[in-house]
Structures are given as C-alpha cells and as structure tokens.
C-alpha cells in the first residue's frame, strides 16, 4: 500500500515541479524546484529498481521451492522403494 502511495506522490510531485524548474532557471525557486525534481526522479528510479529486485527474488524463491519439492519427492520414492 505504501509503495503505491509513494509512487503516486512521486508522479504528482514530478508533474508539479517540472514547470517550476523550467520557467526561469536562474531564480532560486526554479533551482529549488529543479533540485526537488531531481530527488523525486532518483526516488522513482530506486523504487523501480526495488520492484525489479523483488520480482527476481520471488522467482528465485519459487525455483528453490521447486527444487526442494523435487528432492523431497525423490527421497520419498527411495524410502518407499517406488521408482
């Protein structure tokens, strides 16, 4: 839930900051908006990388579970003498 809210807030923040940063780059307000926009962009990039990493880890866990099931099934077959 928090990740979805964070993503929405980042998108809204970026949309609000972009026009401010583009107006007159020499003004302090525009420089602050540009800095904040860069920080929001970096947070979005980090969040996307985290989501990708989470997917990779979930796939690895599923693969390990599958291997574990196979090992347990093979051990059961060897114990009961069924091939």
Can you characterise this structure?
This protein has 83 residues and is an all-alpha fold. The chain has one domain. Helices cover 90% and strands 0% of the residues. The protein is built from two helices and no strands. The longest helix has 53 residues, at 28-80. 5% of the residues are buried. The model has no long low-confidence stretch (mean pLDDT 86).
Show the helix and strand layout.
Blueprint: H1 2-23, H2 28-80
Helix pairs in contact: 1-2
Write out key terms for the chains shown.
single chain, 83 residues, mainly alpha, rod-shaped
**Main β-sheet: number of strands, strand sense, barrel status?**
none
- Helix content estimate: over 70%
Termini separation: 48 Å
Model regions low in confidence, pLDDT < 50 over at least 5 residues: none
Number of domains: 1
In N-to-C order, the SSE pattern is: HH
Number of strands: 0
Structural class: mainly alpha
Strand content: under 5%
CA gyration radius, whole angstroms: 25 Å
Shape: rod-shaped
Count of helix runs: 2
């Amino acid at each position: 839930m928090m990740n979805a809210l964070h993503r929405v807030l980042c998108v809204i923040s970026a949309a609000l900051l972009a026009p401010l940063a583009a107006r007159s780059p020499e003004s302090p307000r525009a420089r602050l908006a540009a800095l904040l926009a860069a920080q929001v962009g970096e947070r979005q990039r980090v969040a996307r990388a985290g989501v990708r990493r989470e997917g990779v880890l979930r796939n690895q866990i599923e693969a390990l579970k599958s291997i574990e099931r196979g090992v347990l099934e093979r051990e059961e077959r060897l114990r009961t003498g069924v091939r």
